[in-house]
Structure to design on (179 residues):
């Protein structure tokens, strides 16, 4: 009789069912919400990089970098100051500037190898701003570390739960030497 009473009582009781359902669903929901916010933040940082590199590259295109003798480190500082949402420019931001004879000869080395490791073109970037009428390509790379669990498994293209964000600008320098 006692066992029968307990079975009957358990079958009919629904007290706390909502709390148990909430406990089961709250973690996946919070992870999804955090993932959405993190992907949005990553896209905002990438947009900030686009804008910052476009502004900094304009200095190369118009000859300001050449006339003022701006070094690679100074150019990186200038570009970083224009990337308002990039938090760590010293260790995570790489800027590569290369000059070419014309647009047809542009041949850029890849930033990542097949295993997701940075290549030499990123870790040892070039800084050749060119002269008037040269074709120049400015590329920037930023290592984004995912915080949200599982998101990095789907979006990381590097080891250590990271994604390499990239942006660039390709242009022909203006004839600034004549003025």
């Amino acid at each position: 009789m006692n066992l029968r009473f307990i079975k009957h009582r358990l079958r009919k009781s629904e007290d706390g069912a909502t709390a148990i359902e909430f406990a089961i669903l709250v973690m996946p929901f919070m992870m999804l919400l955090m993932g959405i916010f993190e992907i949005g933040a990553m896209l905002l940082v990438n947009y900030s990089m686009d804008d910052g590199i476009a502004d900094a590259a304009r200095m190369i295109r118009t000859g300001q970098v050449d006339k003022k003798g701006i070094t690679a480190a100074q150019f990186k500082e200038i570009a970083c100051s224009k990337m308002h949402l990039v938090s760590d420019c010293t260790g995570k931001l790489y800027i590569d500037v290369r000059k070419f004879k014309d647009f047809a000869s542009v041949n850029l080395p890849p930033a990542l190898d097949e295993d997701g490791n940075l290549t030499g073109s990123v870790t040892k970037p070039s800084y050749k701003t060119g002269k008037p009428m040269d074709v120049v390509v400015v590329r920037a790379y930023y290592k984004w570390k995912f915080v949200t669990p599982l998101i990095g498994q789907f979006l990381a293209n590097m080891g250590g739960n990271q994604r390499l964000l990239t942006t660039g600008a390709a242009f022909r320098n203006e004839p600034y030497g004549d003025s």
The helical segments are 2-12, 17-61, 64-68, 72-82, 89-92, 120-123, 151-155. Residues 17-61 form the longest helix (45 residues). The mean pLDDT is 88.
